[in-house]
Amino acid sequence: METRRFDDEPPRDEHSTQPLFQPNEPVTPPVQPRLAVPPVEPRAPSSVANVENSQRPSRGRPSSPAGGSNSAPSRNAAHMPRTLAQVLNEANDMVVRGDLSEFMPLPTGFDPLDGMIGGGLRKTELVLLGGAQGIGKTICALQMARNIAMRTDQYAFYLSYEHTETHLMNRLLCLESINPPEVDLNNGVRLKDLHDVIIAEKAKSTLRGRGEAVSLQTILRENAKTSMPLARMNRYSDRLILVKASPVVTTLRAIREMTQRLVQATGGNVTVFIDYLQKIAIHPERASDEGEKVTIIVEGLKDMALALGVPVMAIVAADREGLKSNRLHLYHLRGSSALDYECDIAIIMNNKYHVLSKDEVSFNPYQARQFREWVVFTIEKNRAGRAMQDMEFHLHAPYFAFDPRGERVRQQLIDDKLVMD
What we know:
The chain has a domain at 120-408: P-loop containing nucleotide triphosphate hydrolases (Rossmann fold). Helices cover 33% and strands 14% of the residues. The chain has 14 helices and nine strands. The protein has helices spanning 84-96, 111-116, 137-149, 165-178, 191-208, 216-222, 227-234, 252-266, 290-308, 320-324, 338-342, 352-355, 358-363, 365-370, and strands at residues 126-131, 155-160, 240-244, 270-275, 312-317, 345-351, 374-382, 389-396, 401-408. Strand 4 (270-275), helix 9 and strand 5 (312-317) form a beta-alpha-beta unit.
């Protein structure tokens, strides 16, 4: 019997970017995937309004790999073996075309935080944002999504299991009234102020007996307090996609399919925000407890980030022990140890007043009370840089905004590993 050597295979061009195994000749026998039709349809803006209906995978065959015109060739042959030379040639072709998306991070707009994580969010990375309730996790994530969508070539996809799209829009109007990073509180509009303006103007229109019903945009545009916030929000309103997700029907598979279609529609220039991770539904998978469910979810989100080539930021809630502790840490997040293993970056938020050492509080109690409006962001995991870095940001809760011009924490903070007298 003749033995064939490895180098007996047909010769290939040394600069070829074709995979060693063609997609129609898989290494292992093909397995027909089970497709799940997303039970929730996102309501996208006009620029991506046809995302849900165009390029929808049919029921009888697997969907094609995601990736728009700017996607790397490697994603067109996902999970196929390739030589290092092929990977290098593909990366070289991207640079020649001027596509530097694999090398340039997306700044979140929170200056010191971006510096600590290598410039911002990167494609294929999973970032976890943890903290106690009311600390400002949603405010932070939505503001980051807004900052990314302000770039004319980028889109942000924000899924909220906690709030409706209209409520998120109202929050953004309040945020735009102080215009971070300018943070002009003199022109600030609180949520109650916004509601009062809308109700009062609608009532006036009714009393005047106008022939046509006055619209919300007309009210906001003609009011001195809301006209400028509306104008600022309209600059990116076509690039910020919002979804009111359901903890019952918005499954992990549905999120992946919606994200895949957005990747195709935007050329891969989309960042995914999930608020929050523990509420994602899983189906047809079944979990025996919350720990197993969180493991399935976090592994699925990481695989989505890798396969579709998008940054994913997910908010994570704290467990009971974490809520009782003096300072929240990564191991206090609700779920399993997979949260620590799978994520690339983990950011934990704590109220600065609560994590100040007793020496700092007793030395200047008046100044310490002012720190109640400040939030400490701690990078507890960072695969590409230094971890355990503390920085602080001023939270303007009535306007649903952080001042993104933060700084390194200068005061001494407590640590659960230290015994404080």
